[in-house]
Amino acid sequence: MKAFKKLPINKTTYIIAVVAFIIVGIIPSFYFYNQYKTSQKLLQNPNQAAKQEIKSLVEKVGKLMVLPKGEDPTVATVTDKTKLAGQAFFQNAENGDKVLIYGNAQKVFLYRSSINKIINVGPINTGGETNANPANSPAPITSKVSPSQGPTSTPTPTPKQLRTVLLNGTSTIGLTNTVEKDLKAKIANITVVDKDNAIKKPYSDTLVIDLTGSQSDAAGSIAKIMKGKTASLPDGETKPKDTDIVIIIGSSYLK
Fold first, then answer.
1. 227/206 Cα distance (integer angstroms)
2. Residue 60, CB half-sphere, CA atoms under 13 Å: how many?
3. What is the pLDDT of residues 177-216, one digit of tens each?
4. Which domains does the chain have, with CATH numbers?
5. Per-residue pLDDT reduced to its tens digit, 111-161
6. Rounded CA separation 10/49 (Å)
7. Quick one: three-class SS letters along the chain?
8. End-to-end CA distance of the chain
9. Is the Cβ–Cβ distance between 240 and 246 less than 8 Å?
């Protein structure tokens, strides 16, 4: 008794098998060839490679915080954090961190790709002075400037800690603790100074209130993270003292 029965192979079956074999062999070859050609183009055109790197970086950071519109940032890389020890903005910097400098908007962002986290945000303080001392030049930063931009002066950012109050506008117990962890994981310069329940419950929308009138960008970024919107302090809620931002957590955060 035979263990296997030999199946008949006609001409059509043979042709199909050969074609399938050829296709399987061609697809990966075409993919790697295409990748090779792309990398060669980038090597031959470093400006294009720099543009793609900046675009990719902006997309990543833009998912964490609202970035200035209408301009491409100058991007730099921290290469020696010890030489930045005297600048408060870089006190939590690590080698490899990216610095996004928006000259027109006068804002600078410090971003760490390894943990996908914004480490600090601040304004650019030009001070009307030009640093001409080579010893104080930006030696620890390797600048990567897009072709459309010229050299910019070295920024001296001033960090701003956002004093924030969290108000639970839902019936979920402990929600302010969850929100605090979420915000601190994505925004390094946020300080939660108080947590409490909202007076008027329930809130369907999460509201982010800028009490200072000067932190609209930060409020918009927080609203994006919180799946909420910026607003004025609702009637009936108490305005806390010594606070920049109030966040009333609504049920929209839980969706």
1. 7
2. 18
3. 999 998 888 887 888 999 999 998 899 999 999 999 888 8
4. 47-144 (no CATH), 162-254 (3.30.70.2390)
5. 999 999 999 888 876 443 333 333 333 334 443 333 434 444 444 454 578
6. 53
7. CCCCCCCCCCHHHHHHHHHHHHHHHHHHHHHHHHHHHHHHHHHHCHHHHHHHHHHHHHHHHHCCCCCCCCCCCEEEEECCHHHHCCCHHHCCCCCCCEEEEECCCCEEEEEECCCCEEEEEEECCCCCCCCCCHHHCCCCEEEECCCCCCCCCCCCCCCCCEEEEEEECCCCCCHHHHHHHHHHHHECCEEEEEEEECCCCCCCCCEEEECCCCCHHHHHHHHHHCCCEECCCCCCCCCCCCCCEEEEECHHHHC
8. 66
9. yes
Q: Does residue 202 have a cis peptide bond before it, meaning omega lies within 30 degrees of 0?
A: yes
Whole-model pTM over 0.90: no
Q: How many residues does the chain have?
A: 255
Euclidean distance between CA atoms 68 and 102, whole angstroms: 7
Amino acid identity of 243?
T
List residues bridging with 102 in a β-sheet: 107
Is residue 111 within 8 Å of residue 15, measured between CB atoms? no
Q: Which of 122, 196, 194, 189 is nearest to 162 (CA)?
A: 189
